Amino acid sequence: MPKLRDFIPKTVAAGIILRTVLYVSVLLALTILAMTIGMRISIRKEIERQVGQTLEGVDYRIDNTFLGVEQTAHIIKGDIPNFLESPGELLQLCREAIKANPDIIGCAIALNPDYYTVEGKPFMAYIYRNGETLVGSETFTARPYTQQEWYTKPILEGSPSWVGPLKNEDTEREPILSYDVPIMEGGRPVGVLGVDVSLGTLTDIAQKYRTSSHSYITILDHNGSYIVHPDSTRLLNIDSMSYFRDAEDPAIMGAIREMVAGKSGKKLFTLDSVPYYVAYMPFKPSALPGRQVDSLGWSIGVIYPKNELISRYDPGFRYSILIILAGILLLFAGGGTIARISLKPLRKLTEVSKNVASGNYSSTGLDSTRTDEVGRFQTLFNKMQQSISDHMERLLDLSRKEESRMEDLDVTYAKTKEAEKHRSAFFNKMSHQMVDVTTDLYEGVDKLYESGGNLDEKELEKILDNIDRNGVKVTEILSDLLSAKQ
């Protein structure tokens, strides 16, 4: 299995650059990882903060709208006792309520049937906004107002309250909320003042607080019906629990149940294959001195795609990554340039080392005035090269002397061989002569011994002369041999 060092170039410069860049890249990668984790944590906290601010902002803005409507209603209510006997003035008060507050789209003053009637019918003054025009009407839907909750609830409880949302059969034009205040006379309710706010108005208010272009805000009633939704058709008697009962992700129903239960929290769910978050909290009207508003049982929810808010920060993060990568490339380029400049003397020394390795000991190194490690290495190398050159000169001189000595020895050896050859021939010759002479000498002595002294004088003289002559020859041969050995 190949190892990391197998991919590192064997040159010093490339190895230094690659190792340095690898180490720096690892540090940068760890830095990026730490930055990514830290940024994601910061983004998540920032998103949670934004969503929390959105929920609180919607709560505050809608409650502030309600408070303005309530104040307008109580101001009008204060004038009603002065005009109870004047139906025309009561209609005018309704107009003044709508003109005084742009969030009010309708105003009704309905008196008890036993208080008085007009033309035999219970009296009801009703004015509503139709575009830029205020239109008057004697009724509010086809049912008698005495059977409608906005009238019956304040009469029974004797206190102001928000009623609604009133949808479809309970309203003539659009879904509304109604703030209803009992009209008191002599300690008993004699009628009801009701001012209406459009659910569409609340939706417009809420959508101004969206966290992103793909998010939206919704408000659910205690029974799961929509009070605020960007799709106006959802405001018409659509129960969110029935609508999402067969949703692909059961987490949607879980979130709706918790919202209806008045809980705060956050859930992740999938809708149309897109992951969403929903953060929710109960709607809480502010408690102010003299304000009589019970909990409405509403819940505010912010729905936003999981990656919608995070994507805001991604461009900057991507730019940071690109800058870091560009830095790594510059590190490669700068490191290579610095290494080439710094290691230029080493490349020169490499060339000189090759010449020395090939036997060219007189090649000069690069003169350097540097005092760093490379300069010291150059100085030591030059000294080593000079020492090797001097040593090789001495070796060459000794080699030449040894060659001359060997030539002399070869000549001497050749002469010795030639002398040895002549000497061997001489000794061979002397040996043969010695054999012949000693044989004759032996034969003469043997004859003399065998004769027993019975030889005549002539023959005896011949034998003795032969022995004497051979003795002289033996002496001469021995003398020659002794001279040759010396």
Unreliable parts: none
Query: What name does CATH use for the topology of the largest domain?
Result: Beta-Lactamase
Strand adjacency order, main sheet = 5-4-1-8-7-6
Mean pLDDT: 77
List the helices and strands and how they pair.
Layout: H1 12-79, H2 87-100, E1 106-111, E2 117-118, E3 121-122, E4 124-130, E5 133-137, H3 149-157, E6 161-166, E7 176-185, E8 188-198, H4 199-207, E9 216-220, E10 226-228, H5 240-243, H6 251-260, E11 265-271, E12 274-282, E13 299-305, H7 310-342, H8 344-357, H9 373-451, H10 457-485
Antiparallel strand pairs: 1-4, 1-8, 2-3, 4-5, 6-7, 7-8, 9-10, 9-13, 11-12, 12-13
Helix pairs in contact: 1-2, 1-7, 8-9, 9-10
Record keyword descriptors for this entry.
Beta-Lactamase, single chain, rod-shaped, 5-stranded antiparallel beta sheet, about 475 residues, 2 domains, alpha+beta, Helix Hairpins
